[in-house]
Write a structure and sequence with these properties.
This protein is an all-alpha fold. It contains three helices and no strands. The termini are far apart. 2% of the residues are buried.
Length: 183
């Protein structure tokens, strides 16, 4: 799915002597035409790079799905997992989920971005309002991701504290039974 063969990354340089002045309308048109071709080549390179990343991402997503299915089967097979292990796994899962949602949101916003050439038939205030909404959505998405990461960290701390509590209770119980045995 990656586009290695068609995305060579090389550029062709064309030098065409103009019969008219360097400041003529033909020279300006030619310069703008070459500039547009150069911009299109850069866009093509960026798109090809994105396709390569998306292919790697697709494979990574498929691997995570398989691991998720395996964990679901494992959880269904055995129902007794200790609380501290559950908390740490849940926190890691929450962190991963927030990062995946951030990536999915970014990809969605790229795909919903209006085509630059088609924006000319919309009014400027509409385009500005859409841009502001997208920016606001991006800011909110980053804030939610930050909050999700914080929740994940708190879940990890909670798991560690629960483990310490279990150890203290076990130690207290052991000490209590030892004192009863001495009397």
């Amino acid at each position: 799915m990656a586009c290695r063969p068609s995305c060579s990354g090389s550029y062709t340089v064309v030098i065409i002597p103009l019969r008219t002045s360097l400041y003529s309308l033909d020279a300006l048109r030619f310069y703008l035409w070459i500039k547009r071709l150069k911009d299109l080549e850069k866009e093509k390179d960026a798109l090809c790079s994105g396709l390569e990343i998306l292919e790697k991402t697709r494979l990574w997503y498929l691997q995570r799905l398989e691991e998720n299915r395996a964990r679901q089967d494992n959880i269904e097979a055995k129902s007794g997992v200790s609380c501290s292990q559950e908390g740490a796994a849940e926190a890691r899962s929450c962190l991963l989920r927030s990062r995946i949602q951030r990536v999915n949101g970014s990809l969605g916003s790229v795909m919903s971005e209006p085509n630059v050439t088609s924006s000319s038939n919309r009014s400027l205030p509409e385009a500005v309002a859409d841009s502001e909404l997208r920016w606001h959505n991006t800011v909110l998405t980053h804030e939610v991701s930050h909050k999700n990461e914080r929740i994940s960290m708190l879940e990890l701390e909670k798991g560690a504290l629960l483990k310490q509590l279990d150890e203290l209770q076990a130690h207290r119980l052991h000490k209590h039974t030892h004192l009863q045995a001495d009397t």
